[in-house]
Amino acid sequence: MKKKEAAVELVKKFIQSDPVKAAQALETLSPKDAVQIIKDLPPSVAAQCVENMSPLPAARLLEKLETTAAAAVLVMTGKYHAADIFRGLNHAFAMTVIPLLAQDFSKDMAEILAYPGDSAGRMMHTDFLSFRGDMKVRDVILRLRQMAKRHLPTATYCYVVSAGNALLGVLNMRDLLLASPDSPVEEIMIRDVVKVSPFTDREELIAIAASKHYLAVPVTDETGRLIGIVNTKNIIASTEAEATEDLQILFGASPEERAFSTTWFKITRRLPWLTINLATAFLAGSVVALFEDFIARMAVLAVFLPIIAGQGGNAGTQTLAVVIRGMLMR
């Protein structure tokens, strides 16, 4: 086996064994270096890594690939993550990728992009379990067993819908298994269902997940049709990502910066804030200079300068701790 083939195989095994760590490692590299690692990988393997990256670094990485390869990887990541990545692509590059995508995939992605960035419509997925209300319990259980042989969505709830797919209620798996086999599912379903619009923002979703302790929240359109569900773990992951980004912005760092980002990337992102900070430091120094004569006559005042500066720093640290806790606990 040639060295290049051996290296590709090694990278492939690393990504397949731990795609999250592989994604984190790629994010520390420049797009130019990162693309050298994934360009020779099969699209399915590259997609495992890309779908675990933040949307903006993933977009910069795909822009370094050939358009056909970028389109193949984009499709493999799934339409919801692909929509987030597509939003960050350079306009000219995005226009060359669109014709290479399947028509159905492009249509689905366009529908997702129509929703606001922090809405339920952007976080929901359509892989859920739903059954008609007049179905018997035994028939539902049989269908679940048949689906399990192929692909059973990861869910704890079954949703009960009408002939027009309007949401009628929700079934708890435990209640379903304990019910009489001949009972219609509409008799054992929970009718008072908390549902949200695809335009519901993340803050409201967090409040619902925290107060109701649901594992998933159904999403319905304006006519009441069930169009998707939002998993609580997706809400939590989205909130954690936003909180860490907010923390970096709070300290004047770019939300895209990582521990091993390139020096040039760090300089270009931090320099504006550091320049402002330097200007305010000179301003503070000029205030002391204004009272230089007065301080010279009463030298004892100079003793209080480090004390005041230290207390200001301590008060700032306390405020920072409160703000950070508030951001993490919201």
Describe the structure.
The protein is mainly alpha-helical. The protein folds into three domains: 3-114, MgtE N-terminal fold, CATH 1.25.60.10; 130-232, Roll (CBS-domain), CATH 3.10.580.10; 240-329, no CATH class. The protein is built from 18 helices and five strands. The strands form two sheets. It has a three-stranded mixed sheet. A two-stranded antiparallel sheet has the order 4-5. A hairpin with a 5-residue loop joins strand 4 (216-220) and strand 5. Helix 7 (79-88) packs across helix 9. It is extended and about 95 Å long. The two termini are 54 Å apart. The model has no long low-confidence stretch (mean pLDDT 81).
Shape: extended
Number of strand segments: 5
Major β-sheet, in short?
3 strands, mixed
Indicate the CATH topology of the largest domain. MgtE N-terminal fold
Sequence of secondary-structure elements = HHHHHHHHHHEHEEHHHEEHHHH
Based on helices, strands and strand pairing, what is the structural class?
mainly alpha
Number of helices: 18
Percent helix, as a range, is 55-70%
Number of domains: 3
Radius of gyration: 27 Å
**Model regions low in confidence, pLDDT < 50 over at least 5 residues:** none
Beta-strand level of the residues, as a percent range? 5-15%
CATH architecture of the largest domain: Alpha Horseshoe
Strand arrangement within the widest β-sheet reads 1-2-3
Question: How would you state the average pLDDT, rounded?
Answer: 81
- What is the CATH class name of the largest domain? Mainly Alpha
Compute the separation of the termini in Å: 54 Å
Q: So, the CATH homologous superfamily of the largest domain?
A: MgtE N-terminal domain-like
